[in-house]
Amino acid sequence: MLGSNSGFFLWVDLSPYLLPTIDNAMQERALAGQLIDAGVYLGAGEEYHSEHPGWFRIVFTREKKELLEGLKR
């Protein structure tokens, strides 16, 4: 049997940081790419069927040390 893969999360509005393009999904992907380049992964809202461009999920069910490092970045 497989273990669970879920956790606590909160939504954060990063819409002020979206790059100006036509397609909302492309804007989120570009911002998500910049975050990944900085060593931070946040789930883009489009992955969770959010109707509001720029909303990302912060999952904080990691070890405290990892969470604090991600928030610092």
Rounded mean pLDDT is 83
User: Helicity range of the residues?
Assistant: 25-40%
Q: What sort of overall outline do the alpha carbons produce when their principal axes are compared?
A: globular
What is the succession of H and E elements? EHEEH
Number of helices: 2
Number of strands: 3
Assess the beta-strand content as a share of residues. 15-25%
**Within the largest sheet, what's the order of strands?**
1-3-2
Q: pLDDT below 50 for ≥5 consecutive residues: which ranges?
A: none
Name some characteristics of this structure.
73 residues; 3 strands; 16% strand; alpha+beta; 2 helices; three-stranded antiparallel sheet
What's the structural blueprint in terms of helices and strands?
Elements: E1 9-13, H1 24-37, E2 43-44, E3 55-59, H2 64-72
Q: Any overview of this molecule?
A:
This protein is α+β, with helices and mostly antiparallel strands. The protein has one domain. It has 2 helices and 3 strands; from the N terminus they run βαββα. It has helices at 24-37, 64-72; strands at 9-13, 43-44, 55-59. Strands 1-3-2 form a 3-stranded antiparallel β-sheet. It is globular and about 40 Å long.
Structure summarized in a few sentences:
The protein is an alpha+beta fold and 73 residues long. It is built from 2 helices and 3 strands. The protein has one domain (9-64).
